[in-house]
Design a protein that fits this description.
The structure is a homodimer of 329-residue chains. Chain A has 329 residues and is of the alpha/beta class. The first copy, chain A, has helices at residues 21-36, 55-64, 70-79, 85-90, 105-117, 120-131, 160-164, 184-191, 203-211, 214-222, 245-256, 272-281, 315-328, and strands at 14-19, 43-48, 136-139, 146-151, 156-158, 170-176, 195-198, 227-230, 262-266, 292-293, 296-301. Chain A has a single domain, classed as 3-Layer(aba) Sandwich (Rossmann fold). In chain A, the strands form 2 sheets. In chain A, strands 3-2-1-7-8-9-11-10 form an 8-stranded mixed sheet, sandwiched between helices. The first copy, chain A, has a 3-stranded antiparallel sheet with strand order 5-4-6.
Chain lengths: 329, 329
Amino acid sequence: MKGQRGLHSDQPLKVVAIGGGTGLAALLRALKNEAGRSRDPWKLTGVVTVSDNGGSSGRLRAELGGIPPGDLRNCLSALTQEESVLSDMLNYRFKGEGNMAGHSLGNLMLLAMADITGDWVRAIRQLSGVLVTVGRLYPSTVVPVTLCAEDFDGTRYVGETSVNSCKPPVSRIWLEPLDAEPLPEALLAIMQADLILLAPGSLYTSTVANLLIPELRMTIARTEAPVVYVANLMTEPGESSGLDLETHVATLQAFGCFPIHAVLANSAPLAEPVLRRYLDEGGSPLSSTQPLLCGVPVFSQPLLDPEAQLARHHPTLLNQALREVIESL
Amino acid sequence: MKGQRGLHSDQPLKVVAIGGGTGLAALLRALKNEAGRSRDPWKLTGVVTVSDNGGSSGRLRAELGGIPPGDLRNCLSALTQEESVLSDMLNYRFKGEGNMAGHSLGNLMLLAMADITGDWVRAIRQLSGVLVTVGRLYPSTVVPVTLCAEDFDGTRYVGETSVNSCKPPVSRIWLEPLDAEPLPEALLAIMQADLILLAPGSLYTSTVANLLIPELRMTIARTEAPVVYVANLMTEPGESSGLDLETHVATLQAFGCFPIHAVLANSAPLAEPVLRRYLDEGGSPLSSTQPLLCGVPVFSQPLLDPEAQLARHHPTLLNQALREVIESL
């Protein structure tokens, strides 16, 4: 069906994908071809969570303040069209045992650009320019935020790494400050979107974390664009241990307060040795044979990358499956 | 005079400039136009000292090993043809009080590229490519070296920062290991050069430091290209305190063991407040009214940048003066 505007118009599709570092990066990588083609390229925008307080990002955040750059860097890397000296640098991590060990050069490049330009939007845009990327990226907020949660036993978790190892489900989850403002550029992209994708990724610390920014959540609720949840392949030891796909959808509905129009889940089984490794660490496959979960149509498709040693979305399979979901909406 | 080859040939001039971070960078900046012009561009090569053990370079060297990147970075920055996002990043320094404070992002970019490519020549060449620079740069050696010296009282100085604060003149100065090898690319550039410039810079820790690499010194001695010493504007508290221009020339003759064909020195007086600041810290102007020092013709020209708050070579004045020296050789 082709219409005059929206999802089935003749205009290039405007897609906003929302999530965290790894899952959103995988989704952007799967959609990059659509955004990079010369004819009717999709207008692709990533909105990236910034509540990370672990790893290189966490150390840099503790030392230099500001927002953590790691998830933005992953997504920037996903959007680069070609390997280059610069993309090599963006993805480089220092070795050794000292102060630099484990730091990502790309994180440092992002922080430097943010300081030079005085502005995250400009910093990312300028780096995107020299990296030759497709699509745009915005942090979900430029306010330094702390993710906090409380489980049903009353245990409180402060900071993303703490919430990541919580005992789910959580009864409360919030960002401090409560009223962190999103960037107007990100809101505008959501308002103009034909399609909104909730990227796979850590349920609470990536997906829900973005929806806790009030203006962001409310802008999604107000737009007419359909919302598709690209579900995780596996549950995550800690924050989503033992939660099934239905609970994932219910969680997003509860914290997002906007309708979800479709769920895209994986139907392919993991190879036995890969599955064994996950089960040993407390992760299990996330899938469903149900056509509807919490009232939302579920599209089950084989999405696994058969070559990967971990459970990973295959870019081409994910791309094709998403196009089928879009056709059906 | 125009000949078939060498300094006065019709071919583009091949110039090799040898020195350390600040002075060599100033010289390269002064010659950049000649190397960047579309008609008969000079072939410019910088050979950069790598015995630095202070500052961001020293910290990185202590932590990650390898050669210190700071002087190379300064020279790379001097050779960039236009301001760009990348040159901004190359010149960025982290603020604050923590582990990152004072680190140069350009140093980190160079170290990362050296690790990624496994090769300093390729690392610098690839960075030069994306930065759009003119000319080529080589470290004087890729062997991690330590500069050592002994003064006439028998006091021994180990490491560049220590030698920098020595009581001159020194009786002995050497690199450990003694037989550090230069890069074949640098030797080839010297062998093919029409002109060799000894850049201004710290007498022992920048200029002499390069000449302590046996193959480098011997290759300069074997080439027929004239050698011009672009003298410092000021003596340096510590390593060149109280040394006059004649002693500078004699020192280079003694440690270089090759003929020097001309000295280019500054004749312009420093503005009173700038001079006062230098004198207070133990530096004094380095100039001479003599036409010959140690048998070497001295060209005295006003070379000072009148706008600078420190004693700095003015790129255009230095460029013009050098062209006059070349004409006279």
